[in-house]
Amino acid sequence: MQPRSVRTMWLTLAMALSAVSVRAQSVQYTSAAGIVFRSQADTGAIARAEQALAAEPNNIERIIALGIAQSGVRQFREAIQTFTRGLRIDPKNAVLYRWRGHRFLSVRDYDRALADLNQGASIDSSVYGIWYHLGILRYIRGEYAAAAEAFKRGLPIAPNAGERAGSYDWQWMALMRAGKEDAARALLRSMPDSVPIAAANAYSQRLRLYQGRIGPGDVFTPADTGDVAVATLSYGIGNWYLLRKETKRAKEWFERSVQSGGWPAFGFMASEAELKRMK
Asked: From residue 220, how far is each of 45, 89, 116, 203 by CA, in Å?
């Protein structure tokens, strides 16, 4: 075979493989600006979960495990289908409503997210994730008092330090945006000092900012390079400036959040909503 023919063959093969790869990464969300966000390729977790489910097709735990594996590579629409499959088997399962509501939130189907989370809460009000994601949804919609109440309901049943940090973080922002500054200050005073330290995540960094322990220039650490971390931290800084009526600087940080590529992040979603309101 001639060298040119070899090069042509490999180029054709590469293009074919690239096309297969793009098809495997399904469209999940298209922003108002027309930017298309896709899922990621499975690294094995989905295949293993599918194999386990095939052996027990009506096992709700296996179904949830598959949905979580799909969510791990941003296959949120596929996860919605998986959780819907579970709800056909067990229509009164609050955890399935929690997960499907979360995934509707991820793809910006806010009405269906609200319906699922409310349905889940009516079945079992002790599921932490229902209240947390209801709070996020209400916050994104600008319903700050209702958001604060949802985070308040969830905080006592938060399962670990990271979730407690997230509940304190979003509840403080919701209270501040609702004009309940005294309640927001009281919330921070009530928070154990160990929470930000134990959590060691983006929310704990934002809490340190609210407490005045660090300034906005210290929120990012050298490890904060992932797209979700950038989106999350950028929103927190932007909101901090917005509360100080420094709208221009706030907008710059909201824009940085949506430019991060971390579209599944709640900070990304909140930044989208802030920028829309600023138009």
From this structure: 31, 45, 34, 11
